[in-house]
Amino acid sequence: MSSLDLLLLLAGLVLSLMVFGYLFGDTVLFGIALYVLVGVTAGFTTLVLLQKVLIPMLINPLTTFPETSALLALVPLLLSLLLIFILFKKSSKISGIPLGFLGGVLAAALIVGVSRGTVVPQLLSVIDAFEPDRLTTAGMPVWSAIFEAFMMLAGVLAVLFVFHHRRTQKTSDGNWGTWLGGVSGLGQVFVGITFGAVFVGLFSTGLTALIAYVQNLVDFVRLWIGG
Amino acid sequence: MSDNPDLRICPNCGQENSLYTLRCIRCGEEMEELFQLEGFDPSEQLSNDSPQEDQAPLSEVLASLDDSPLLAEPVENHVDENGGDHAGDDQSSVVEKELPDWLERVRQRAQEEEDASGELSKLGHTSKERRQVDEAFDDILRRIREQNEREKTRKPRTTEQGMVDEKGDPEWLRRIRELHPKNEEDPRETTLKGLPLEDDDAWTKEELQELLRREMGISEHADQAAEDEKFEEIETIDSAEPSIDLPFQENFHNIADDDQDEPQEEEPAEPEEEANAEEPESFPDNDPETENAIDEPEEPDGGLQDQEGAVEQPDEETAEEAESEITPPVDKVLPDLLLLRNQRERAQVLREVIAQEGQRTITLLHEPARQGKIGRFVLALMLILAVLGGILFGGEAGIANQPIPAPALAFEENLRSITSTHPVLLVLDYHAATRGDIEPLVQEILAILDSNRVTTRIVTANPENLWLGETPDEFIPGDMLGYLSAAVSSDPAWGQLPLAQGFSGDAKIYHEVDQAILISDSSEFVRAWLEQVSPWQSGIQTSVVTTSVSEPMLLPYFESGQLRGIIAGASQFRALGTTQQGSINQYAWQAGTLLMMIVLILGMIMKVDEDRQRRTEERSQ
Is the ipTM of this complex over 0.90? Predict the structure, then answer.
């Protein structure tokens, strides 16, 4: 192990202990470690953007002027310059031009993407679950597939009723309100199961990270004491 | 007459007295002559043998009565206090009862004259002049009646009879009973804190003052000292403000403070109650200085304040001493003797509200709990110790022996089906915090692909991945929009897009790619890929390497067929069918999981028990 690796391991040990200091509250050591992380990340990202984005995609094409690619490079350059006006109060509205363009593109991509990538495929998946070929095998019903299909449909509808019933809870009354409340309760069961699974995954991920870093600390100590 | 227009010189002793003083404060000499009308001396009218000298002034007096403001306010109040005239037929008789003494004397004098019209006839010598005098009288009486009627219609005042309830108790007695409800329980005991009530419910002034002293907590000794001070003759402090009341007397009313003048200084003084009953025996003139002196006796309840013009004023030192002895502390002084109980309660509430100024009255929603911080520390310490114990005493790190889920099996099956025909696109988008959960899987996947001689193309849009794990071949600017742009773009006929110049190699990252493996710790990134890129590159089959957190959110996409497989976390390392050791110690992982399961179960039991206890308390309440 080189001295540089040893130094990096020592720095990692100190920073890890500083982060563990959060167990005692928002201490100064935890704040220092956090600011180091943010500062290093910001500086590294700036360098990467300069090297990988601004210079090759914005500056270099201008050198080929008057080629078409150079003229096209003027468009992002102009929009980028307009963004500078966001720093000035009086002329900050000018920066709304590139921001509006960016927001419009994002909104359009999001709407189209959600429709084509999530809503339609998921609805088709629920419908496909009731395909006869899946529910029967050699003319005999496959009860597990049938149960799965109905549970999927019930889960989708019940979860949708959770949010619908939450808005109309104050106005609904009588049998209809009771029925809606029951469906909504079933939906809450599905939502609770989902959140439980997410929590298990969160804990599993955190535990894995903890084991990895404790393992690194143990390895460092073993290396330091020659064990 | 003094130089000061507000002072009067006593003709007997030369003492300067207030403008409103009826008796000299030094010798007690009546100073009524000060209020004589010019040209009219009732003491001389009977013995005067030369009527020619008085006839002219008397007519002037009558003429001046037309314009005298004396007949405006004072007379109307006087009439009003006595109930006013209730019938038109009895108006003249009622007004005669209300006539002041000077008017009676005028009439008496007129009757004693030889002529029925008195010497006025000699003055006028004609019936015309006599009619003028009669008209003057009639005019005065008519104006008195009109003013009385106007006053009644404008401000109908509750008569004393109207303030008596069905039991015959006056209003002031009801208020006092409200203040002392205990005394009301025993109707026989008509005493109020030891003060006997008379049968006719009439309280004397001494009894009321005694009651006031008890309310204000003034001792008898202090009261006696005040009484001693009151009888001393002392110098006037400010003769322009002659009405100095007792400290109790200023509160002894039920009139709003706005309706009366602020006393300049609280000094003990003796109220001359005789002055309250006295009527000015002399005629006031039209001098504005004397008009106030006439006004004061006419005011209702004025006997305790302005009407007592002959109040003796103590000197400053004596006043301060008496004040220090008699005046209770400011916070104990009641603003009004006849404050009702609810009024006192409101005042108390207002006092409390003012006292709470600047204090926090709403509890914080997230008040830092010391117990929670300690519990968090203990829990974290236990978890660290469990993991440390698993690492130190559990032996070498091994592969976690856990059941393999179907998405992980599908991922492994899809991975091994990849041949060397087409390159595989690896998209990196994870952070340093999850590298321990992802990088072991990535290393194993790359090993499998390398064993199958499959070429890979590694790209990322996250700068952090440039120095984490595998070094990417390309950096895609713009995050998901960069992937989208690369997916939808095509080479124009006129050259190359500026975006293409940012790539070090081939800008067509999806070219001839039929398998893409997303290596991300965010389910949002995977979902965005499926929404933005997959619709445009439908020929690319997507698999995911992610963390355990994101796995539940991605399962619907696996069920719908949009993902070929999901492998989540190092705990599913065994799904890749390798015998190599993972970086995650199995014993440490099991120890940590077991500890957290115990903590969760205990937490749920405690929560259930806490809810049960709370419901029990709510039912008992």
Answer: no
